[in-house]
Specification:
- The complex is a heterodimer.
- By secondary structure, chain A is α+β, with helices and mostly antiparallel strands.
- Chain A contains 13 helices and 12 strands.
- Chain A is globular.
- Chain A starts with a strand and ends with a helix.
- By secondary structure, chain B is α+β, with helices and mostly antiparallel strands.
- Chain B folds into 2 domains: 77 residues, Ubiquitin-like (UB roll) (Roll); 64 residues, [2Fe-2S]-binding domain (DNA polymerase, domain 1), CATH 1.10.150.
- Chain B contains 7 helices and 5 strands; from the N terminus they run ααββαβββαααα.
- Chain B has a 5-stranded mixed beta sheet, sandwiched between helices.
- In chain B, strand 1 and strand 2 form a beta hairpin.
- The structure holds flavin-adenine dinucleotide (FAD) and iron/sulfur cluster (SF4).
- Iron/sulfur cluster binds next to helix 8 of chain A.
């Protein structure tokens, strides 16, 4: 690891004023410290932001605000989250381990970097780690990589589970910019596709911080599911995951939400399938048709064709599980 | 003589060409390249940490993880280094009563916090109930992952995640055991669970 200067800040504005190209913020450290050990991140100075960002969950009648420093475990234990936004808790609990969830912050979870094996191996070319060197995964071991939305520059996927639920629930990210102003950005626009700039994972402006996340009250707290398929039962990143939520009137679907992890460079919403489900009867046939709609346009790489049928099954299972959850 | 000249010419041109091929795309990337040739001085920070209810004031390199602080600086070697990348759980300790991975925690960030390691569990000569249970239920074989397993197991009980074998397994999944003592570990936890 390269030597670096470490500093704490007494206020958010002070932390922001310290930010430049060679500085990085540190929250839980579960991603950044690992990347620094592997010389993938080489900040010259680290600014501890754990004491300057909100670490509380606040609620009002219409929405919930989760401070950027709220640890992942704290979200899953929060009574309002459990009652009104249970999909979020469910997705978080499917990720990492209890120790990591105790450390991981809300802001850090959004900004965690891909787990593409070549991104982690500094002896191989990787456009995301070293722009312009090429993408080793494209022709290499890409079983964990994307099946949709990728470019010829990068086929990495975003590794977060929490973010899949936040995408499904149409959350909003609140940023604090360098001049101490707050800005909102729709969660689904926060992360980006690789296109020609694979080194950029998201649209967070340089010198800005994530301040908090908010979710509006919604009717998706009864019929919801998070299905995560991975190489082992627990403590592994998703091959594919599906967050599903239904608003039902009797057996009719009023509204549906469907999002996936492990498939793209950002948490992926299946809006066409959501539209299709609207107004349909909640039956196995409808669910299967929605899954087919999702999987028909996918373009798997050389080693991850298996993700297509896996995803088909995961969508069907998640939608079925939504019905069970209501009991 | 002539040959010496052309060899030198070859070396010169090839290194110029190689240098050109290596010129990175952007100024930032160029800076990153050049940076690698200059290793800055290490930064040292004064820290005050409370470990197993004992205060330590110590100077440490900013790069020091809590795990290395415990093992290398304070010789508290009960906490184990497994993967050093957060993937095995061998380094699990409690910070302010919660289980965390000491290998991904910078020592500088626990300044002023209360750390508990495996050395701090027993009450003088009396083992913590979880330590006793691990002995009685064969919760280990080689013992390397055991300190991390026990720290995690104590937290698992405190958090109330012992409702079923499946729940225990899920909430202990952050601690790997290459010997496969998992059944004994689950039984130890069941024994201590309320
Ligand atoms: C072994 C292992 C397994 C894992 N498995 C899973 C899994 O299955 N599912 C899953 O979803 N995740 C998983 N994770 C990832 C984990 O969830 C993330 O590492 C964690 O959420 C990152 O949060 P942090 O606070 O520790 O971030 P840090 O490491 O502190 O920071 C990450 C990045 O975010 C920046 N940052 C942090 N907070 C802010 C802020 N408020 N504003 C601006 N910038 C900020 C930092 O500068 C840094 O660049 C796993 C991690 C490990 C080590
Ligand atoms: S997929 Fe992206 S992260 Fe992986 S090697 Fe290619 S450029 Fe790098």
């Amino acid at each position: 690891m390269r030597p670096f200067i470490f500093s704490k800040s007494s206020a958010l504005s002070q932390a922001l004023s310290k930010k430049n190209n060679t500085t990085q913020f540190i929250a839980g450290g579960t991603n950044l410290v690992d990347l620094m050990k592997k010389n993938i991140a080489q900040p010259e100075s680290l600014v501890d932001i754990t004491t300057v960002l909100p670490d509380k969950i606040t609620t009002n009648t219409k929405s919930i605000q989760i401070g950027a420093m709220v640890r992942n475990t704290a979200i899953t234990n929060n009574a309002t989250v459990k009652a009104k936004y249970p999909l979020l808790a469910k997705a978080i609990l499917a990720g990492a381990s209890p120790q990591i969830r105790n450390m991981a912050s809300t802001g850090g979870n959004l900004l965690q970097r891909t787990r593409c094996p070549y991104f982690y191996d500094i002896t191989t070319p990787c456009n995301k780690r070293k722009p312009g060197t090429g993408c080793s995964a494209m022709q290499g071991q890409n079983r964990m990589n994307a099946i949709v939305g990728y470019s010829d520059q990068c086929v990495a996927v975003h590794p977060s589970d929490m973010c899949v639920a936040l995408a499904a629930l149409d959350a909003t990210v609140t940023l604090t910019t360098k001049n101490n102003k707050q800005e909102n950005i729709a969660f689904t626009n926060f992360h980006r596709l690789p296109e020609n700039l694979p080194e950029r994972d998201n649209n967070l402006p340089a010198n800005a911080l994530i301040h908090s996340i908010s979710i509006n009250e919604n009717p998706f707290n009864k019929n919801y599911a998070y299905v995560k398929l991975r190489d082992r039962d627990s403590y592994a990143f998703a091959l594919v995951s599906v967050a599903a939520a239904l608003q039902l009137s009797g057996n009719t679907i009023v509204q549906a939400r469907l999002a996936s992890g492990g498939v793209a460079h950002k948490p992926w919403r299946w809006t066409e399938a959501e539209q299709y489900l609207k107004g349909k009867a909640a039956t196995a046939t409808t669910f299967s048709e929605a899954a087919t709609m999702i999987t028909k346009g996918l373009k798997p790489l050389s080693h991850n064709g298996f993700k297509v049928p896996l995803l088909h099954g995961a969508v069907e299972t998640a939608l079925q599980n939504c019905l069970v959850a209501s009991q | 003589m002539k040959q010496e000249h052309s060899r030198r010419f070859f070396l010169k041109t090839s290194s110029v060409l190689a240098a050109f091929a290596m010129i990175p795309r952007t100024a930032k990337a160029f800076y990153e390249e050049v940076k690698n040739f200059f290793v800055p001085n290490k930064e040292v920070l004064p820290l005050t940490v409370s470990i197993n209810k004992k205060k330590y004031s110590i100077k440490a390199d900013t790069r020091t993880t809590l795990l290395d602080l415990l093992r290398e600086d304070l010789h508290l070697t009960g906490t184990k280094k497994g993967c050093d990348h957060g993937q095995c759980g061998a380094c699990t300790v409690h910070v302010n009563g919660e289980r965390v991975l000491s290998c991904l925690t910078l020592a500088a960030m626990v300044s002023g916090k209360e750390v508990t390691t495996i050395e701090g569990l027993a009450n003088e000569d009396k083992l913590h109930p979880m330590q006793q249970a691990f002995i009685e239920c064969d919760g280990f074989q080689c013992g390397y992952c055991t300190p991390g397993q026990i720290m995690s197991a104590v937290a698992c009980v405190n958090e109330g995640h012992t409702g079923s074998v499946a729940e225990i397994k899920e909430f202990m999944s952050g601690n790997l055991c290459r010997c496969g003592a998992y059944n004994g570990i689950v039984q130890s936890i069941q024994k201590v669970a309320p």
